[in-house]
Design a protein that fits this description.
alpha/beta, 40% helix, 4 helices, single chain, globular, five-stranded parallel β-sheet, 132 residues
Amino acid sequence: MPALRIKLPTILVVEDDALVRMAAVELVDELGFALFEVASADAALAMLESHDEITIVFTDIHMAGSMDGLELAALTHQRWPAMGFIIVSGEHDMKATDMPEGARFFAKPYSYDMVQAALRRMSDEITAAAQR
């Protein structure tokens, strides 16, 4: 009998600052997740529409373009309610009621360990929900 292969969720990193995006990508990559990266919410929507394997969005709030990260999260949650969200910002402080259900907020500079732990938990929850 072949070994069972467990596939980790795919994460989309959305950050307009190239250096900060590189750090976030490294954080996600260290956990072994498959990932995509984009520099705007508009590009994120296009990526989400063409890649149904994406299950977690890791987004900054403040970005150039037609919408910010909170608007992206709200719109994405409406279209794909099972999507997980990690929302980060150096300028805002969020309450759970300001974000989609189940989203986690981290103020910049955030702890890599805390974000990685949140990604692992979210991944486990999404995987468990998909197996039901």
